[in-house]
Design a protein that fits this description.
5-stranded parallel sheet; 4-stranded parallel sheet; 371 residues; 15 helices; alpha/beta; globular; Rossmann fold
Length: 371
């Protein structure tokens, strides 16, 4: 298949759903975790749960980089604009993520110079256009976006742009999956593997999940038939009693990953000993920091930041939702105090957040049915 409408063909979707019902043992309950926030939105947007048998439960994982960023790191970034007078450049997803004293958008309204950019190269361009100002790019994302940050840092050094630096918050997906598997309150039988991250790191990186934990993983695309075919592939493995990594998204994801992107990351970044994740706590070797060779462009070395740990509001249950322990609607604040217009947790803000997906699709659908 080559075109989007083919991946949304109702006839093929019915056939895939029928195959899933045939493969699913009615006496068994299946809990499958989709790691990527993009999959969560696809599942809700296309109401894929409605075509699955009731004994297949889809659980949301920590695949949204904005959602897993702890509030303290948001405050650290905001301190750059507030205390040091820099131009802080950030992706659109970050603009409404709440810190302890408000979101970047709210700080911008109070006078801080915070600007939305579409790529780190836009931030570098800002620095070249404003040579008398310091420009800091608030870097965030899994391995999907880390290569573009690495290439921008390389370009900054080659061009000799000295008023540009990066506040690095890039995280890596493998330690997060391992933390989920080691969590005593998390029970999943298989994983719908992340599509975006896998375009960079490939599929081989997931083999430990099958080898060490006996769980199948199928890397999936984001269209309805992609997700349903991935579930078919998982059920076939479970029926055979085996566990292996399979690549449903082979039209985009190379098995070995994007080697030039991986080389760029290795040149610019190294692993942090520890990094805090919202909902998962501190995970060793789970995030990237800028190497010494690029220290002149590392905002954490150039500027002092509070570095204070900030806990989420007590009533918010972002951590439980991120780990798949709770569904979004089971959070006490969901749809009441916490909405996309007035988010309390990051999961309600991001375009990949599980709470935003449930609110925008599943909740509105149930409201429409009630009417």
């Amino acid at each position: 298949m080559k075109f989007v409408d083919e991946f949304r063909d109702p006839k093929l979707i019915r056939q895939a759903a029928q195959e899933i019902r045939r493969l699913a043992n009615p006496d068994r309950h299946y809990r499958l975790m989709e790691v990527c926030g993009g999959h969560t939105h696809a599942i809700y947007r296309f109401a894929l749960q409605d075509v699955l048998p009731p004994n297949i439960e889809l659980v949301h994982g920590p695949g949204c980089p904005v959602c897993v960023l702890p509030m303290g790191r948001v405050d650290d970034g905001l301190s750059l604009a507030r205390d040091h007078g820099v131009i802080l450049a950030a992706f659109g997803d970050m603009m409404r993520v709440p810190g302890r004293t408000g979101s970047p958008l709210e700080h911008k309204a109070r006078g801080a110079d915070i600007r939305m950019v579409y790529s780190p190269l836009d931030a570098l361009k800002l620095a070249r256009e404003n040579p008398d100002r310091e420009v800091v790019f608030f870097a965030i994302g899994f391995e999907t976006t880390a290569p573009s940050t690495a290439l921008t840092l390389r370009a900054a050094r080659q061009l000799g742009v000295r008023n540009f630096s990066v506040f690095c918050n890039h995280v890596t997906i493998i330690p997060a999956i391992r933390a989920i598997l080691d969590s005593p309150d998390m029970r999943v039988e298989a994983f719908i593997g992340p599509g975006h991250v896998s375009t960079v790191i490939g599929c081989r990186a997931y083999e430990f999940i099958c080898r060490d934990y006996g769980k199948p993983l199928v890397t999936s695309g984001f269209e309805p038939l992609d997700v349903l075919q991935s579930i078919v592939m998982i059920l076939r493995q479970l029926e055979e009693g085996c566990a292996r990594v399979e690549n449903q998204y082979a039209r985009v994801v190379p098995w070995e990953g994007n080697l030039p992107a991986l080389r760029a990351m290795a040149e610019v970044f190294e692993l942090r000993p520890f990094f805090e994740w919202r909902g998962l706590g501190f995970i060793s070797q789970s995030a990237l920091r800028i190497r010494d060779d690029y220290a002149d462009w590392d905002a954490e070395r150039r500027f002092s930041m509070p570095g204070v740990r900030v806990t989420d509001p007590k009533a918010a249950q972002c951590g439980e939702v991120l780990k798949g322990v709770l569904k979004p609607h089971q959070c006490k604040l969901f749809g009441r105090e916490c909405t996309p217009e007035h988010p309390i947790g990051a999961l309600m803000v991001s375009s990949e957040g599980a709470c935003a997906a449930y609110y925008n699709y599943a909740m509105r659908k149930s409201d429409a049915v009630a009417v």
